[in-house]
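Handout, page 2. Input:
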Amino acid sequence: VFQLQAERPAQLTGSRMPVKSKAPAGFIVVPNFISVQEERLLLKEVLRKGAPILDKGHLKFSNTRQQEYGPQISDAMEFVKDGVFTQPPPRCKALISRVAAEARRQGLYGAEALDAPDLSFLRVNHYCAEGGGYMHKHMDSIKCFGPIVACCSLLSDAAMTFYDTHGNSFGMAAVHDVTEVRIPRRSLYFMTGSARHQWQHGIRKDQCPNERVSLTFRSLAADAPTTTARAVAANFQARRQLGKARTGASVRAGGSSSQGLTTLKKRPATAKPGDASGAKRRRAAT
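Output:
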């Protein structure tokens, strides 16, 4: 159950790098794109009980609960050609059309694919307030998705940091420039051009201290790499088995150490009546 929070700006502190406040080229913000009533209805829809929460490997890089709608995409950013197409909820589907219409109004290249029936892709990110809502810096997959990333922000204000990596999507890529942008509540933003292809982006914990929901819209690239549902299932099982093996190895290693300590504790020196040295040995053993 969610409650709409009173209007308040996020408290953004703790940045460890000097940053600029000028948005990268191609980053466009449309304030107040969502009405108060529409926000309430969208939140009721995406935070409903029984919503399809993801179980995917990449989630360890964020403090979010996620849902995906549209064509099925693997962890390796491949289109699962025989996968399940998940229809978005009604209000989200209507919002996709509005976002695509705004992209066309702005004259953005690739706008026509945002609401194409077989290409439109929506990810819901529910940022958790506990621990701070964060998303490690990354670049949305160029091989899998089209030239526009669009996002509607709900529940609270936030900020996002852009890192100029000269188009390098590798997580440890050299950073040549840094800038920070504000993301107002109920706004829509577009990442296109340089903001989409030259800069990585991420959200620090101090940039999203309150509960937040984002609706991120993309389109499947026409030449996206493909895979099969069978291959995805095999990879999932392999990761699960690897995780169990690592957990088992950790438990066994810890168990040996604990058992050794327990054994030591079970062997205190036994004092004979009137033997003061035995009492000293007992205290030393415990």
